[in-house]
């Protein structure tokens, strides 16, 4: 079959019939189009080259040629892990055995100067579009979106994804796992679906639409339809295993039907982002292995990295972060709990390697395994410090700006990694995971946030097995590399929209030449006003916010910049700003130029406060809501916002004796939320304040038979965010219970959803077993918000 680049085809559907035609173009036409910069996707419909007579007897058929990748194009598998530090996996000198990643690296190349944006959503946008994250409207995360073109997280049609490019060239495409590139307010079953994976060029999607999900009780979608796991956590369910099974099944199905047709797979686990949900047998493998502490861990990993050659022999270990206590200064309780969190974190990484190993084994058995390009990026940013200085068992609480206390965490130490927990390591372990570099996730100014390992294999092409590559690369370079490897051109128009030029450059040259010239001489970085500029071996850096305290920033008038010569100082260990002030000023000026070129402004160093910035929404301005049975899996951004205000919920229920129990309405999950339910006939309301305090309000009377009203009213104290108030429970307008809460969730309940008639995902409370479907009939549920009048 001819390459589709040389043909024009049309397809006409008439009832159950399909009519096709093709008009082959000569090569001169194609070259003229290239010279004019006129590569358009999808390709024009081809002209019919047959003959149409009065009847079929005096007519000649002409079938069209369908889109097909250029001859010899490989399968492409892009694997992207979440929140993994440079010095965590054994493949790059870390203490967590990752035998499958080790094996892959032994068959291909390890890249030790590959860079991300320092946070997940922006890295993923840059990966998918081949443009810098601000150019792709993803200057920060969807939940923190603001109404500026570079920060609204609406990937422009002018920055089409790799999915669309290869799909329109005839490759089947699939996306498994995390999608953090659909705007927060567009992730419900009501859409719009323009920026879901299935509209971004992916034929199939199986995963979740947020920054993280409960690995035991995930919020899942298949394409655009919400689905529930087929088994429970008690039966051994874990999303990492589930998505791997789905990916293997998909690629087996593709190759069974069309073994010679290359495919594109984007495999993006939620692992090892918090919550660190680790099966018990995996976390127990690391029992006692981190008792030496994070300071010694950095030294151990650093020495191993030098011995392995993944960092230069003259590389220094960057200075320890002065914000972190030394391990030796900690109490025995602190050491015990922090080591436990690290064992769990390491177990999650090892378990993830095991599951991806199953996928790699399946790929290795494909009929065209030799012609399969695997690009395995070990983290979308460095290890995360969002667990705070003391770690946490409720990461959502930390993201709301409320830090857990050690005394609270110790009470629940035996829950680490189990369903219902949301553990996150303390800052000290994150810094150790980023060895030998300074800082961590969010801090785009330094390599601890932005340098991630990458392993690439392509047996047909890459022969330098086990080789190391040290060219300076960025995640925007992945897409152009895939296009060159598959023989495809970057389009000038996609779906009729003129495209922004690609910001990335192909590094295919490094596949066969360890000394291939640098493709990237300059690259800017920015996240939350943490900034850096790389240029020809130098890095100017300004660390602006503390990633575990986003509300602390120096103010733009008090900025301090550092300077590193990374040709001589691989790990950014020696700040030479005082020695080369003119070079620093030169790079700072270049950063300003790059910021203008790639639309970085306006800078914004607000942290959790951006969660409450008004955003487009299906519920904007609404204070009255009516729901019916079956309204489930509604994301928090498009559910009634009952936070920081007074509100009332009234449910009209029809029940019979012995069939009254179940959830009426729930939002959130084990991290935080509320639920109105009936148990043993008694209406009950529970408010979960980050697991610290669960307030239970149980009716003094049972729900009567027949039609009845159950109402919960909340009178908010007012005076700011997260304040307390009074909950009152009614049956048929008769008060049956009340209770005060001294604090409420100020920003987000978490990673779960809103639903009527059942509590999907992780349960808000342990008073019932989810989903605890309502036994009676819910005629309707009405919610009224009562915002404070502004003076």
From TrEMBL:
Superkingdom per UniProt: Bacteria
Does the keyword Signal belong to this entry? yes
- Alphabetized InterPro entries for the sequence: Alkaline_phosphatase_core_sf, ConA-like_dom_sf, Sulfatase, Sulfatase_CS, Sulfatase_N
Q: By its UniProt entry, which PROSITE patterns does this protein fall under? A: PROKAR_LIPOPROTEIN (PS51257), SULFATASE_1 (PS00523)
Per the record's keyword annotation, is Magnesium included, yes or no? Answer: no
Which residue intervals define the domain Sulfatase N-terminal in the entry?
74-488
Q: Which UniProt keywords apply?
A: Calcium, Hydrolase, Metal-binding, Signal
Give the PANTHER family listed for this entry: ARYLSULFATASE FAMILY MEMBER, BLL2667 PROTEIN
UniProt lists the family membership as follows: Belongs to the sulfatase family.
Name of the protein this chain belongs to: Arylsulfatase
Organism annotation = Echinicola arenosa
């Amino acid at each position: 079959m001819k390459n589709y680049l040389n043909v024009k085809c049309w397809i006409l559907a008439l009832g159950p019939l399909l009519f096709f035609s093709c008009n082959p173009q000569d090569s001169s036409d194609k070259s003229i189009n290239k010279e004019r910069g006129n590569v358009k996707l999808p390709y024009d419909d081809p002209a019919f080259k047959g003959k149409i007579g009065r009847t079929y007897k005096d007519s000649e058929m002409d079938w069209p040629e369908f889109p097909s990748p250029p001859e010899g194009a490989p399968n492409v598998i892009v694997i992207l892990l979440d929140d993994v530090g440079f010095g965590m996996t054994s493949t790059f000198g870390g203490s967590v055995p990752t035998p499958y990643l080790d094996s892959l690296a032994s068959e291909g190349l390890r890249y030790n100067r590959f860079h991300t944006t320092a946070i997940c959503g922006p890295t993923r946008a840059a990966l998918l579009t081949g443009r810098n994250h601000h150019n792709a409207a993803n200057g920060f995360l969807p939940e923190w979106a603001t109404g500026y073109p570079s920060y609204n997280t609406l990937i422009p049609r002018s920055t089409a994804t790799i999915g669309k490019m290869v799909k329109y060239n005839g490759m089947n495409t699939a996306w498994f796992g995390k999608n953090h590139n659909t705007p927060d307010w567009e992730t419900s079953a009501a859409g719009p679906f323009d920026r879901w994976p299935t509209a971004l060029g992916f034929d199939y999607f199986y995963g979740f639409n947020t920054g993280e999900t409960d690995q035991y009780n995930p919020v899942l979608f298949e394409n655009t339809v919400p689905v529930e796991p087929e088994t429970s956590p008690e039966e051994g369910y874990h999303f990492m295993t589930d998505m791997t099974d789905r990916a293997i099944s998909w690629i087996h199905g593709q190759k069974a039907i069309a073994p010679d047709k290359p495919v594109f797979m984007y495999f993006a686990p939620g692992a090892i982002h918090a919550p660190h949900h680790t099966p018990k047998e995996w976390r127990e493998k690391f029992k006692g292995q981190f008792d030496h502490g994070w300071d010694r861990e950095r030294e151990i990993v650093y020495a191993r990295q030098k011995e392995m050659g993944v960092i230069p022999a003259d590389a220094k270990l960057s200075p320890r972060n002065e914000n972190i206590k030394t391990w030796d200064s900690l109490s025995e309780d602190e050491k015990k709990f922090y080591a436990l969190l690290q064992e769990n974190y390491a177990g999650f990484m090892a378990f993830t390697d095991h599951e991806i190993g199953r996928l790699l084994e399946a790929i290795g058995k494909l009929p065209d395994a030799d012609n399969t390009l695997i690009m395995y990026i070990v983290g979308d940013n460095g290890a995360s410090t969002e667990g705070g200085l003391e770690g946490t068992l409720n990461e959502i609480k930390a993201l709301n700006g409320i830090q857990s206390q050690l005394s609270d965490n110790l009470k629940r130490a035996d829950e680490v990694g189990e369903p219902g927990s949301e553990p996150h390591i303390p800052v000290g372990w994150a810094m150790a995971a980023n060895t030998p570099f300074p800082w961590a996730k969010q801090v785009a100014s330094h390599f601890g946030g932005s340098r991630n390992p990458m392993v690439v294999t392509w047996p047909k092409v890459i022969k330098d097995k086990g080789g190391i590559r040290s060219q300076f690369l960025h995640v925007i370079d992945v897409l152009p590399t895939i296009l060159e490897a598959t023989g495809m051109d970057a389009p000038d128009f996609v779906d009729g929209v003129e495209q922004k030029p690609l910001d990335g450059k192909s590094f295919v040259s490094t596949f066969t030449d360890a000394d291939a010239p640098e493709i990237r001489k300059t690259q800017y970085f920015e996240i939350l006003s943490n900034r850096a500029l790389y240029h020809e071996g130098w890095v100017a850096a300004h660390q602006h916010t503390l990633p575990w305290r986003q509300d602390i920033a120096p103010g733009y008038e008090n900025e301090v910049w550092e300077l590193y010569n990374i040709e001589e100082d691989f790990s950014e260990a020696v700040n030479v700003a005082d020695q080369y002030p003119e070079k620093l000023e030169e790079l700072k000026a270049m950063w300003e130029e790059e910021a203008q070129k790639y639309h970085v402004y306006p800078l914004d160093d607000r942290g959790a406060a951006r969660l409450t910035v008004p955003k487009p929404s299906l519920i904007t301005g609404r204070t009255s809501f009516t729901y019916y049975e079956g309204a489930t899996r509604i994301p928090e951004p498009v559910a009634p916002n009952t936070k920081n205000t007074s509100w009332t919920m009234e449910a009209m229920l029809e029940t019979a004796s012995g069939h009254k129990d179940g959830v009426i309405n729930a939002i959130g999950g084990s991290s935080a939320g509320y639920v109105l339910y009936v148990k043993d006939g008694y209406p009950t309301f529970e408010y979960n304040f980050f697991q610290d305090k669960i307030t239970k309000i149980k009716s003094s009377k049972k729900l009567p038979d027949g039609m009845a009203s159950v109402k919960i009213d909340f009178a908010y104290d007012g005076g700011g965010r997260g304040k307390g108030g009074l909950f009152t429970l009614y049956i048929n307008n008769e008060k049956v219970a009340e209770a005060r809460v001294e604090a409420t969730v100020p920003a987000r309940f978490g990673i779960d959803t809103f639903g009527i008639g059942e509590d999907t995902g992780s349960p808000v409370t342990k008073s019932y077993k989810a989903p605890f479907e309502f036994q009676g009939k819910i005629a309707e549920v009405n919610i009224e918000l009562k915002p404070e009048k502004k003076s």
